[in-house]
């Protein structure tokens, strides 16, 4: 039996619960892992709320929260290639296994070995934030000196996008709340505080001719307010709001395969994708970990240290 934290039905934080469950049995193209660290993401509470139930793998309640983790392979299902029992790995629980748990199953094609020199804590932050940031930058036609507005720069994905953009010698302006300023400015971002000033006016004053690219992490009305700042509406890319297409922009094209994970790990080893980890909680602190992300009160990345 293993301890896990999840939800017994769709809803808000009130449906969350701790429970014990037998170790999952890995199916075809799955690996069972002993979870060392699980990453916490906004997608986790959206899944709990039932807003994106197509990603839950159809598993019965109670369901375990979490989409990404790093740990050690305990067993393999059929047709697993390139991963062995005992390997230190990181990846996605794309089949609905959940990662806020002592053991879980990961999708083998979406799981990679952790390279020597990379900690499990850093590795656990890469499946969602790391690969998303790489995908975003790959979809921009970039030249040194180009201007990019990162709308919602303070979270795990936003800081990762900004760090990679700065490394490519782009001029990066980021929007966020006051609590996000320090981490953004530390990596070379010019910061616009939406709680203290008019974002549109401040950003336009910095780049009067309009931005070459806008990367949106906030969505909703925030996306709609900054989208006109782009020189070309086709150069607005959103990570979380598919309605960006109504504005003439694009939704990010995601790649979650092993090659993408390995690439993000190499960038992390090179210091180009160093996550800003602002909180590490034990499994017993999972409710507080998810609450800070759900409430938008945390900068950078939050993780749960299970073992």
Automatic annotation (TrEMBL):
Q: Which SMART domains match?
A: PKS_ER
InterPro entries documented for this protein = ADH-like_N, ER, GroES-like_sf, NAD(P)-bd_dom_sf, YIM1/Zinc_Alcohol_DH_Fams
Single annotated GO MF: oxidoreductase activity
SUPFAM superfamilies (alphabetical): GroES-like, NAD(P)-binding Rossmann-fold domains
PANTHER family recorded: ALCOHOL DEHYDROGENASE RELATED, RETICULON-4-INTERACTING PROTEIN 1, MITOCHONDRIAL
Q: What is this protein identified as?
A: NADP-dependent oxidoreductase
Q: Which organism is it from?
A: Streptomyces albidoflavus
Organism ancestry? Bacteria, Bacillati, Actinomycetota, Actinomycetes, Kitasatosporales
């Amino acid at each position: 039996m293993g301890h896990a934290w999840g939800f017994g039905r769709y809803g808000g934080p009130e449906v969350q619960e701790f429970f014990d469950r037998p170790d999952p049995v890995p199916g075809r193209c799955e690996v069972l892992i002993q979870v060392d660290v699980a990453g916490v993401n906004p997608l986790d509470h959206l899944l709990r709320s039932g807003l994106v139930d197509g990603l839950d793998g159809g598993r019965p309640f109670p369901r375990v929260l979490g989409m990404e983790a790093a740990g050690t392979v305990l067993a393999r299902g059929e047709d697993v290639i390139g991963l062995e029992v005992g390997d230190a790995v990181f990846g996605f629980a794309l089949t609905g296994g959940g990662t806020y748990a002592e053991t879980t199953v990961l999708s083998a094609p979406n799981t990679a070995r952790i390279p020597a020199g990379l900690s499990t804590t850093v590795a656990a932050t890469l499946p969602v934030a790391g690969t998303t940031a790489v995908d975003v930058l790959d979809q921009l036609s970039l030249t040194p000196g180009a201007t990019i507005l990162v709308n919602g720069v303070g979270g795990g994905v936003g800081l990762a996008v900004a760090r990679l953009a700065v490394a490519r010698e782009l001029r990066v302006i980021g929007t966020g709340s006051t609590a996000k300023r320090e981490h953004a400015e530390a990596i070379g971002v010019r910061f616009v505080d939406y709680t203290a000033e008019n974002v549109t006016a401040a950003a336009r004053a910095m780049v009067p001719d309009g931005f070459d690219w806008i990367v949106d992490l906030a969505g909703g009305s925030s996306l709609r307010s900054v989208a006109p700042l782009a020189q070309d509406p086709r150069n607005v890319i959103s990570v979380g709001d598919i309605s960006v297409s109504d504005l003439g922009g694009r939704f990010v094209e995601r790649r979650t395969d092993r090659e993408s994970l390995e690439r993000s790990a190499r960038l992390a080893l090179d210091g180009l994708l160093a996550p800003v980890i602002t909180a590490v909680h034990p499994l017993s602190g999972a409710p507080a970990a998810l609450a800070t992300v759900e409430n938008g009160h945390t900068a950078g990345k939050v993780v749960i240290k299970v073992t």
